Amino acid sequence: MTSAEPTRRDFLYIATAAVGAAGVAAIVWPLIDQMNPDASTIAAGAPIEVDLAPIAEGQVVKVFWRGKPIFINHRTPHDIEAARSVDYQTLPDPQPDQDRVKPGHDAWLIVIGICTHLGCIPLPHQGDFGGWFCPCHGSQYDTSARIRRGPAPANLPLPPYRFVSDTKVEIG
Amino acid sequence: MDGHSVYQPQSGFMKWLEARLPIWSLVHSSFVAYPCPRNLNYWWAFGGVLSVLLVFQIVTGVVLAMHYTANVDLAFSSVDSIMRDVNYGWLLRYAHAVGASMFFFAGYIHLFRGLYYGSYKAPREVLWILGVIILLLMIATGFMGYVLPWGQMSFWAATVITNLFSAIPLFGESIVSWLWGGYSVGNPTLNRFYALHYLLPFVIFAVVALHVWALHVVGQNNPTGVEPKSKQDTVPFTPYATIKDAFLLVCFFVLYGWFVFYMPNYLGHPDNYIPANPSVTPTHIVPEWYYLPFYAILRAIPNKLLGVLMLVSAIAILAFVPWLDTSRVRSATYRPLYKQFFWIFVAVCIGLGWLGSKPAEGGYVLWARVLTAWYFFHFLIILPALGLWERPRPLPTSITESVLGKGAAPVASGAAAPERRG
Predict the structure, then answer these.
(1) Can you give the pTM of this predicted structure?
(2) Across the interface, do A2 and B66 touch by the CB < 8 Å criterion?
(3) Domain A42-171 is of which CATH architecture?
(4) pLDDT digits over A130-143, tens only?
(5) What is the CATH code of the structural domain delimited by B286-394?
(6) What is the nearest CA distance from B248 to chain A, expressed in angstroms?
């Protein structure tokens, strides 16, 4: 017959189950963690430095960081003006141009070149807004790489970056 | 099987599932209620250990396969990358490599248990032969796995072992180049060994399922060799055998963990940390420890073809043991002469293993020949003769008698069934 008090057997069962559970967790974690990026992949994804001096006004340059294309656009004053003259609240993904560049470096637009629709790389200097045109499904971005028309839901995102000097930027 | 509980589904869900796929009642009747002899000792727990190790090797293997590249230019550095870059890669690699040694260690103990207690005798012949098949598959799998890191030992072991097939008259050379996929061990060889090394463990899994099925049809042997005669002679698998298996498993994993965390390269060969060089043969090519006895037998015979045949026979002869052993008594516990020859045989196997690690020169050669001769003498002469000559000790009438002594009263329900709490 079972007594109402917990017995030694109960204690042993529960203690064994607890240690067993800890053991299972200790075994399972390495099996899961091994799929996370390994040390060499993380090292290969370290920040890169890009020299901005050779990039002419109006030019868009593509670099790769962590396997993703990054557009570096040396904008003309006309581009900046076009980006700022529109009321950003009316845009599909409202965001002012000033938030998309570093203070004092308004000419440099640095964005991740992956269409926020389904991942194609948009083409520069095309489309009705002076920015990019994505050939896959027709999304169009403006001179601040914000989505204006087409199925893409969001503006081209910004990678982490900082200006090391006026002519050198570190992405990542 | 009577008196032991039969699964009755209680909940609505279980009744629904049982009517469609009675998997739980299969598990219940095979591993919970299954009656096993009450006198099984720890030598019987190695089957359970082996099953867990097989799953463990498959899991660590699949996970390693996510990072390994089977190409002659990339394999060695992919293993190096696993060791240095992959999260816990060092642990997974060592677990898998040491795991292979542990698998053979437990496997040999399991096999020798069978030889000692006569577990191969009728009606367990097919069970035994399935075990020999599993051993062959293990040997093939282990060999191919060792080639994958593409170190010096990997490459030269592959060359030596595939060259064995050239001993076959007429077709030998074409068989060898068929195995190689070329004119020497190279990239095609590595690639196909990788594919087969991934495949065979699943074949082993299937044969293990047959092995367990064959076991459950005839029931387990036990240390007395006397079959269970009544309900009293058996206990339900769960909790008795389950807990015994679990306890041995824990102890076994302490040993396994000792190697993995304190001496992970002890069982391996340092030359395998040198990238494969097809133009330089290492001075002493040796296989991993678990192949050493067979390697010693191969080298003991001066003739190439005969050496290969003896190597194959050394393993194949195991399949014939149920018929070579003429004794009507199963267990060596009751066979005083056989017991002594058994331990001599164990010493001979260990001796052959040690000789396999030595260079084939001088006194080592003579001893390897002597021990090889004894190895076959044991199977071909001693086993048949002992059955006819030996006078066995009197067997107990039943398992219960051997456990409780003569005249013991039938056990009260409390002690025999602690699976009912109270």
Answers:
(1) 0.91
(2) no
(3) 3-layer Sandwich (2.102)
(4) 999 999 999 999 99
(5) 1.10.287.980
(6) 15
